[in-house]
Amino acid sequence: MINGVHYDLIVTIVNKAHSEIVVEASKKAGAEGGTIIFGRGTGIREQAKLFGITIEPEKELVLTLIRRDLTEKVLKTIVVEADLNSPGKGIAFVLGVERVVGINH
């Protein structure tokens, strides 16, 4: 909490090259940006094979630190714009943030 403002962290995991959709959706809903981290999926859907070789698709994680009063709006916009309700498109979840430092506006 900074000056009485509470924050949440929206974590969105999408397939490679889809993180920009998430960042643009979050900005459209009031966020100031996000941090993109590259990863590799290991879930059931990621066990595709090509010529007998297991392929583990690359993922992108978008971390969006957001004021709690904007969390629902930003999350809903991400879900719609990134089509997260469709199978295999990705997931998003929200973590409450206990402390934040370094935000200087």
Brief overview, please?
The protein is α+β, with helices and mostly antiparallel strands. The protein contains two helices and six strands; from the N terminus they run βαββββαβ.
Give structural attributes:
2 helices; two-stranded antiparallel ribbon; elongated; 4-stranded antiparallel sheet; 6 strands; Alpha-Beta Plaits; alpha+beta; about 100 residues
Topology:
Blueprint (H helix, E strand, L loop, with lengths): L6 E9 L3 H10 L6 E6 L7 E3 L2 E3 L2 E10 L3 H11 L8 E8 L8
Antiparallel strand pairs: 1-5, 1-6, 2-5, 3-4
Approximate strand percentage: 35-45%
Tell me the number of strands. Answer: 6
Question: Shape from CA axes?
Answer: elongated
Can you tell me the CATH architecture? 2-Layer Sandwich
User: What is the multimeric organization of the chains shown?
Assistant: single chain
Q: Report the structural category.
A: alpha+beta
The domain tally reads: 1
What is the name of the CATH topology? Answer: Alpha-Beta Plaits
- Please report the number of helical segments: 2
Overall CATH class: Alpha Beta
Overall pLDDT level:
88
- List low-pLDDT spans: none
| Distance between the amino and carboxyl termini | 14 Å
SSE series: EHEEEEHE
Strands of the widest sheet, in order across it, are 2-5-1-6
